[in-house]
Amino acid sequence: MEATVHQQQSSVLPGSHSPEMEEIRQMVQACIQCGTCTGSCANEFAMDLTPRKLWRMVLMGREEEIFASRTFCLCSACYYCTLRCPRGLPLTEAMYRLKQVAAQRKVKAYRASEAFYSSFLESVRRHGRVRESEFMTLYFKAMKNPLLPFRFASLGLKLMAKGKVDFKLPGKGNLRLASLFQRVAEIESQRFGNQVKPGTTGKNH
Ligand code: SF4
Ligand code: SF4
Predict the structure, then answer these.
(1) Is any ligand 2 atom within 6 A of the Cβ of residue 47?
(2) Quick one: 146 and 183 in the same domain?
């Protein structure tokens, strides 16, 4: 028993406060802070912490700064940083894990992203493809902000005028993908605990 406790203690370095963050820290442990990931990221201009700084924060166990940041929310999983990292680190997977931890902890800064992913996938689950108007309706509902639709009204009208968006009310769909989504939920539950809805954390986006 003592050995087990010692093993658990020694696997978590000072500054790293939780097993899930320790797992992410180990993914980027060999980072040499060269900045290639930052220089490779097409979304870096919009990030408050550059990817290089984010990995430094992870190594230092600075969870408050990490989850106050929107950097991992803005990762679009293009894998370019992963391909170019001279240490061969699984950076996109690490970003994905940060999204999952943020979803599990219900981090405020990640709420809009989680609502976006969940609504997108709920529409895909119902119909096998996304229905844009349904997706946005689900998203607005999840965000519980009555003024939010007005921010998108002009863009929505332009897209409708060009025939890019079908106006269809939300429906239940044929649910042919329900068993597939259920299986993903089971796998995610086994791997990460049962607090994350299937596919809500953006690995495929
Ligand atoms: S490219 Fe790799 S080694 Fe370089 S800063 Fe980014 S994570 Fe670290
Ligand atoms: S995977 Fe994410 S962090 Fe890496 S380059 Fe692409 S968008 Fe940037």
Answers:
(1) no
(2) yes
The mean of the pLDDT values for the chain is 82
Cα–Cα distance list, 143 to 59, 95, 105, 136, 167 (Å): 33, 23, 17, 10, 20
Residue 103 burial (C-beta neighbours within 10 Å; 0-12, 13-18, 19+): buried
Quote the CA–CA distance of 197 and 189 in Å, as a whole number: 9
Q: What is the number of the ligand 1 atom nearest to the C-alpha of 89?
A: 2
pLDDT in tens, 55-102: 999 999 999 999 999 899 999 999 999 999 999 999 999 999 999 899
Q: Please give the single-letter amino acid code of residue 160.
A: M
Nearest C-alpha neighbor of 20 from the set 205, 201, 183: 201
- Residue 178: domain span: 111-192
Are 94 and 141 contained in the same domain?
Answer: no
Distance in Å, CA 160 to ligand 2 centroid: 31
Q: Is the CB of 79 under 6 A from ligand 2?
A: yes
The verdict on the CB of residue 91 being under 6 Å from ligand 1 is yes
